[in-house]
Design a protein that fits this description.
binds NADP nicotinamide-adenine-dinucleotide phosphate, Rossmann fold, 7-stranded parallel sheet, about 50% helix, about 260 residues, about 15% strand, 9 helices, alpha/beta, single chain
């Protein structure tokens, strides 16, 4: 099937973003893949172009930098592309005591997880409104539903992503645009290692998370929570959940 539609995926070189890129390629979408690692982007471009006849564009951008969203949007325009589906997936976290961590690290995380995500949503939503169609999938977390001791800023950024996406899903509905928030729980990706913690033994496969995300996005589901365990987790009262998460995150710390 060829849809002649284009999906832009940030953080497409690893984990959930990479699995989503494979699914969209298999469904015949053209792809715009964004990340920092140029070698990986090129490898994935080659892999996905070989598999299908999809056009694959790659854009190297550090989305934790001020103005990165605008630069990315202008590059998409320079390539004369219209984005039908925007997936704000790139995200980063760290684990450790908030007061000991470098503020620069907090700033980069907030910039990547919230500011650039908001900037890209604004720029592409504007175009989608003119076209009277489009979909935006913002990757939040089950951590959007409660506090996360030992990973406090990260969880707070994800609470923002969920709140922002829920609000926009209502605001943009009359314009024919679907906004969804994907809220995965622990997932087997590079994320834990990069965040400085061990992998969780109960983590879901990234492929499964991406399959559920794709299916539910196509059904215009507003909030997508993959897996029964994660669905139950978000129902637990907030403070109790924060205590449980604190114990769990502390146990995963590499340098306790
Ligand atoms: N894994 C989990 O347990 C889990 C749970 C809940 C939510 N999530 C969310 O799921 C999303 C995807 O994470 P993942 O688990 O798939 O992690 P991952 O395997 O570490 O992948 C992260 C992707 O984002 C890109 N990226 C990171 N920093 C970037 C930056 N500054 N600029 C541009 N691209 C950047 C990475 O590529 P480069 O390094 O090449 O830039 C990579 O492609 C994130 O938003 C994360 O918060 C993950």
């Amino acid at each position: 099937m060829t849809t002649e539609q284009t999906v832009l995926i940030t953080g497409a070189t690893s984990g959930i973003g990479y699995e989503l890129a494979k699914i969209f390629a298999n469904e015949g979408y053209h792809l715009v893949l964004v990340a920092r690692n140029d070698n990986k982007l090129n490898q994935i471009k080659e892999e996905l172009q070989k598999r299908r006849n999809a056009k694959v564009y790659i854009i190297q951008e550090d989305l934790s930098q001020i103005g990165a969203g605008d630069r990315l949007f202008r590059e998409v325009k320079r390539l004369k592309l219209e984005v039908d589906i925007l997936i704000n997936n790139a995200g980063a976290g760290y684990t450790g005591l908030f007061h000991e961590k470098d503020f620069e690290q907090d700033i980069h995380m907030m910039q990547l997880n919230m500011i650039t995500l908001t900037e890209l949503t604004k720029l592409f939503a504007n175009e989608m409104v003119k076209n009277k169609r489009g979909k935006i999938l913002n990757v939040a977390s089950t951590g959007s539903y409660h506090g996360g001791p030992y990973t406090a800023v990260y969880y707070a950024t994800k609470a923002y992503v969920l709140s922002f996406s829920e609000a926009l899903s209502i605001e943009l509905k009359p314009y024919g645009i679907v906004v969804s928030a994907l809220c995965p729980g622990a997932t087997k990706t590079d994320f834990a290692r990069r965040a400085g913690k061990q992998d969780s033994s109960i983590a879901m496969e990234a492929k499964k998370v991406a399959e559920i995300a794709y299916k539910e996005l196509m059904k215009d589901k507003k909030v997508i929570i993959p897996g029964l365990r994660n669905k139950l987790l978000v129902k637990i009262p907030r403070m109790w959940a924060s205590h449980m998460v604190g114990k769990y995150q502390k146990a995963l710390l590499i340098n306790k």
